[in-house]
Design goal:
Length: 301
Amino acid sequence: MDRFRELETFIAVVEAGSFVKAARALRTSTTAVSRLVQDLETRLGGRLLQRTTRRLALTEAGRDYWLRARQILADLAEADGAVSAVTGRAAGLLRVSAPVSFGVLHLAPLWGTFLAFHPEVALDVTLNDRLVDLVEEGFDVAVRIAQMADSSLVSRRLASTRLMLCASPGYLATHGTPASLADLADHRVISYRSEPMGDTLTLWAADGPRRIRTRSRLHTNNGDTCRAAALDHQGIVLQPDFLIGADLTAGRLVRLLPELQGEDIGIYAVYPTRQHLSGKVRALVEFLATAFAQPSWGQGG
């Protein structure tokens, strides 16, 4: 009887929402997954899941068991991490959270190399611009692009990125090139954040910040959408050079008001504060620090 396998399978079924998806995640057959859950219910003497043709639902007992089972596996992972921290061995599943644009452009090309360096590690990478709760959601490491506030998390600065004000040559040929920050009030600005009364852009001069309230017909919470709209000659954007640096270098976008600086933002590897740092987390943080020691973006300014 493999009780660990039963727990792992039951948790996978609950979190996947079906036996088929759980089997796919565990790389086994649906029949094997169903049998393990049935064996678990038989051993416990009670039903954990209500099964219908359309959905699965936890019974009251099943929910209690699921919460306890998740904690057991989390504690086991913590124990494994404590040992690997002592031995320095990088092994096991490594769950990583990262922002969407940065994850696609700059992290995705690195994963193959990392896995080749650490053959005993498996990666589970989730791209999400939402600020995830590492502990609550079970992530080992998050890559964050932010001004880091004080927190209970440990962070290591990997690199930085600077916001750049830019537009396409096609847009500037049609609408003119702004000569001052005040001129932006008369231009189309593609806004990264939506505000009910308009958007405020902040750039920095030698003696401090300069702000201008603009109007925008396009608001979005995604940098790739801002970039695509700018390349389509729809307006002016303020975006990080990790995203638009190659466009600036190639001349697809043109930097505006170079005497003013956009905000410089740190790129960090963040992980929960623990007494023992696992070998797999340590390996990833060191790998990313080396990979971004000389970042490829920022040549376009």
